[in-house]
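A quick aside before the break. I want you to see a complete sequence-to-structure record at least once, exactly as it would be stored in a machine-readable document. Don't worry about memorizing anything.
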Amino acid sequence: IIMEIAKELHSELIDFILDAEGDLAASLESFSAEQLANFSQSQYQGAVQNEMILNMFLTEGMVGNKTPVDIFLESHPDLSTEKCDIVNNFRRSFAGLFAVNKIYDDGFELTNWLTDKTYTVKINEAEQQQLKRAKSGEILLARIVPLTNNDWMFSSTVTLMGRLGK
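That is the input. The structure line, written in tokens, reads:
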């Protein structure tokens, strides 16, 4: 159930940023322009690229001396402690290339391709459909965010990269 709450909060945070005006909107616009320039030669175009940039903005964007997460939390003072903790975990999200080690009914055991660190990533039903082709040994390009001390979730679309050599 924590994943459902986290997915809902992540969606609310993304909507909050997309609906923003003023400094937050201006910061998103300049951050996006800078990132799009970096991605211009990338194979990732369109919606996937925009989603990656928006998720990067959550953790790397600044509005003055505040992050988008800070601004969201300040504007939602009625959130429970549990929900605030979940939102604060979004600060620890990161993108990476992950090798599929094990496939479970409710997720994967993934190894970060660069750091060799292992993560247990839980998935929901929609992600199960999207990732049903994933096989052990394949590489995923994904952004993950912690749910608990041991479990993570995907915070953006996952791209199946197939098998890559070291």
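Two observations worth writing down. The two ends are 37 Å apart (CA to CA). Strands lie at 94-104, 107-112, 118-122, 139-146, 151-154, 159-162. We'll return to this after the break.
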